[in-house]
Amino acid sequence: MTIARTVNDWFAANARDLPWRRPGFSAWGTLVSEVMLQQTPVARVVPRLEEWLTRWPSPTALAAAPAGDAVRAWDRLGYPRRALFLHAAAVDITERHGGVVPQNIDELLALPGVGHYTARAVAAFAYGHRHPVVDTNVRRVIARAVAGQAEAGPPSNARDLTAMEAILPEDPVAARVTNAAMMELGAVVCTARAPGCGACPLAAACAWRLAGYPAYDGIRRPTQKRFDGSDRQVRGIILGTLRAADAPVPASTIDAVWPEAARRERALAGLIADGLVVGTGAGAYCLPG
Fold it and tell me: What is d(CA 200, CA 182) in angstroms, rounded to the nearest whole number?
């Protein structure tokens, strides 16, 4: 059996029940979910996604709201610039696409904050087009099952898409399932630290397993800096303070959220530069209007 047929059969019996996999889930919902899922675990995304789509069920609905409302609703999902990107994308979709999420890859790539992965994910999962969709989980499954490597190494858009293209069935419906199945397999079975080879449908033919699980000796991605005490943490604290306020927050309140002035001022300046915080001109700060 081919990899696609094997993982598709496994997926049919083992797929998690997630909102974006349910019949009738909208293209807008798919775009929102894909942006939320960037660097954020599924368990944290699901409740926030449902809240967003209840409040803003269409791009037009979000475009009509202030950008600050999107930042406030983003809450603690992390990397809050994604909220601004979604709001900007909603405005673009409303003004340039009649409120309908486009299905063409180039048009999707032209939306604010939409990269190669997200564009292909929306085109494949929302519209059923046959495109390889490659995330970290897919790259790991291919690296192990096909290339016999413990890790995928640094990403390469051209190489990764070519490798996934070779696995996809020609039938668009089956290809859509294969994209989702490979992601699911990497997320719940072929995990980074503790792969569950005993439950893997590809175990019998996995090149890494058959080679005796050789250690990875290639180039590694830089280790992510610790969160505690970082600029990211201070940015989050400042944003949390502004989210909780119904009026502009005085600079004295911002000064009190973190004792180290240099880091606090650097974090605040970064938030202003990113468009996540606005100075009122009266010594106070608020979310964007």
Answer: 11
Rounded Cα distance between 151 and 285, Å, is: 45
What's the pLDDT at 281?
A: 83
Average the pLDDT over 134-144 and give the result: 97
pLDDT on residue 76:
86
Is residue 169 included in any domain, yes or no? Answer: no
pLDDT > 90 fraction of the chain, expressed in percent and rounded: 90
Sequence-separated (6 or more) residues with CB below 8 Å from residue 199: 189
Q: What whole-number distance in Å separates Cα of residue 158 and Cα of residue 136?
A: 15
Domain hosting residue 279, numbered range: 231-286
Task: Establish if 207 belongs to a structural domain.
Answer: no
Per-residue pLDDT, 34: 97
Distance of CA 86 to the CA centre of its chain: 12
Whether 252 is in a domain gets the answer yes
157 within some domain:
no
Of the residues 34, 95, 151, 260, only one is catalytic, namely 34
**Total of domains in the chain:** 1
Please say whether the beta carbons of 107 and 122 come within 8 A: no
3, 206 contact by CB (below 8 A):
no
Q: Determine how many CB atoms are found less than 10 A away from the CB of residue 238.
A: 23
> Residue 107 catalytic?
no
| C-beta separation of 64 from 73 below 8 A | no
Residues 6+ apart with CB under 8 A from 246: none
Helix (H) or strand (E) holding 27: helix 27-36
Between β-strands 278-279 and 249-250, what pairing exists: parallel, antiparallel or unpaired? unpaired
Contact 62, 70 (CB under 8 A): yes
Please, what is the angle between helix 172-188 and helix 136-145, to 10°? 90
Tokens encoding 163: 């490798």
